[in-house]
From TrEMBL:
<protein>
    <recommendedName>
        <fullName>Succinylglutamate desuccinylase</fullName>
        <ecNumber>3.5.1.96</ecNumber>
    </recommendedName>
</protein>
<dbReference type="Pfam" id="PF04952">
    <property type="entry name" value="AstE_AspA_hybrid"/>
</dbReference>
<dbReference type="InterPro" id="IPR055438">
    <property type="entry name" value="AstE_AspA_cat"/>
</dbReference>
<feature type="domain" description="AstE/AspA barrel-sandwich hybrid">
    <location>
        <begin position="273"/>
        <end position="345"/>
    </location>
</feature>
<feature type="binding site">
    <location>
        <position position="68"/>
    </location>
    <ligand>
        <name>Zn(2+)</name>
    </ligand>
</feature>
<dbReference type="InterPro" id="IPR050178">
    <property type="entry name" value="AspA/AstE_fam"/>
</dbReference>
<keyword id="KW-0056">Arginine metabolism</keyword>
<dbReference type="GO" id="GO:0019545">
    <property type="term" value="P:L-arginine catabolic process to succinate"/>
</dbReference>
<comment type="similarity">
    <text>Belongs to the AspA/AstE family. Succinylglutamate desuccinylase subfamily.</text>
</comment>
<dbReference type="GO" id="GO:0019544">
    <property type="term" value="P:L-arginine catabolic process to L-glutamate"/>
</dbReference>
<dbReference type="Pfam" id="PF24827">
    <property type="entry name" value="AstE_AspA_cat"/>
</dbReference>
<keyword id="KW-0862">Zinc</keyword>
<dbReference type="GO" id="GO:0016788">
    <property type="term" value="F:hydrolase activity, acting on ester bonds"/>
</dbReference>
<dbReference type="InterPro" id="IPR016681">
    <property type="entry name" value="SuccinylGlu_desuccinylase"/>
</dbReference>
<keyword id="KW-0378">Hydrolase</keyword>
<comment type="pathway">
    <text>Amino-acid degradation; L-arginine degradation via AST pathway; L-glutamate and succinate from L-arginine: step 5/5.</text>
</comment>
<dbReference type="InterPro" id="IPR007036">
    <property type="entry name" value="Aste_AspA_hybrid_dom"/>
</dbReference>
């Protein structure tokens, strides 16, 4: 029989960190909610008394990278308020702490970047039989399980509008402190209401992806047709060093969504936003790859045409356009992975609803 907890002492984050890779499922008695722990770091809340009014279903994920602590703290506060019945919500929600083992070592990941393992990337097939091979590491297995839990959650609420906010903080400073990645949506229109929801969180800079990806947010968007975003809320800092005032609007907006607050997309005004599209994706193909700018150069810093961005195999990689801005530079990724994006402003007025 599975061990059960009241989730108050210790709280769910502590239980998660004490069970890095697995926790047997159990139900938690609660007056207001059906509360179910599905695995370590995966907890489901559904209000008991208004099933007919549950028009939205939300996934809030954090700790896909273990050292990004501010989103973990935001989600922990909301979870604790729900467990103690000090917060009343209208809509069901699934909270996910993605990589508990990485939380415990204060690193992005243990063996492999979890946010490059979704949409089937976690499993490789035998080239002869096409049968699935064993998982290469525990992060691959975790990604497969998280896909299963998101699927299970949305299937529990088939009529609800689906939303997934994958909450992160960035490795380096940013010229725009908060920004969101809008996964590639295969030509479908972007949604004014989602821009307005994220603006309420303090996010006014958006990066529109131009191709399929193996990120968690793309998985939910493509597989489950969810409103899905990777939301960057600031810079990576250790537990206890986050300025909570900088995250108050994001936390309150998540709470407001769960309580049923409606956000009006008709108030969308393009002048409130900086909307950019990917111009180039630069992958690391050799261990000689190095960035040509300092570690303190912020995300969204612009370069002039011809300025050097990186070097590999002794050859310079330069900006092809004036105003090309850098995002997510990381020379330490594995061979074959993205080491840098460059972006340019774009106009989306012709494909917006």
């Amino acid at each position: 029989m599975a061990t059960t907890f009241d989730l108050i002492s210790p709280d769910f984050l502590t239980i998660t960190r004490n069970n890095e890779w697995h926790l047997d499922a159990f139900n938690v008695p609660n007056e207001l909610y059906n509360v179910q722990v599905w695995d370590t770091g995966v907890i489901y809340f559904s209000p008991k008394n208004n099933a007919s009014e549950q028009e939205q279903a939300f996934v809030f994920s954090s700790a896909i990278h273990g050292n990004e602590t501010a989103p973990i703290e935001i989600c922990t506060d909301i979870i604790n308020d729900l467990v103690s019945n000090t917060l009343a919500i209208k809509h069901p929600v699934l909270f996910i702490y993605g990589n508990p083992a990485a939380i415990n070592i204060s690193e992005r990941f243990v063996e492999e970047n979890l946010n490059r393992l979704f949409s089937g990337r976690h499993t490789k097939a035998d080239p002869e039989s096409n049968a699935a091979l064993p998982f290469e590491n525990k992060e691959c297995e975790r990604a497969a399980k998280l896909e299963e839990y998101v699927t299970r959650f949305f299937e529990l609420h088939p009529q609800a509008e689906r939303t997934h906010y994958d909450l992160h903080t960035a490795i380096r400073d940013s010229a725009h402190e908060k920004f969101a990645v809008y996964p590639f949506i295969h030509g479908k229109p972007w949604k004014k209401q989602q821009f307005e929801i994220l603006r309420a969180m303090g996010v006014t800079t958006f990066l529109l992806m131009e191709k399929a990806a193996t990120t968690f947010s793309y998985y939910s968007s493509n597989e489950h047709k969810a409103n899905s975003f990777t939301v960057e809320l600031g810079k990576v800092r250790p537990f206890g060093e986050n300025d909570q005032t900088k995250f108050a609007s994001a936390k309150q907006t998540l709470i407001n969504l769960l309580k049923g607050t409606h956000f009006d997309g008709e108030s969308f005004d393009a002048t409130n936003y900086q909307i950019m599209t990917v111009f180039r994706e630069i992958n690391k193909t050799d261990e000689s790859f190095e960035l040509s700018f300092a570690d303190n150069v912020a995300n969204f810093t612009e370069f002039k045409k011809g300025q050097e961005l990186a070097k590999e195999k002794g050859e310079a990689i330069v900006a092809n356009e004036d105003g090309e801005a850098i995002v997510f530079p990381n020379a330490h990724v594995a061979i074959g992975q993205r080491a840098l994006l460059t972006v340019l402003p774009t106009d989306i007025s012709n494909n917006l609803v």
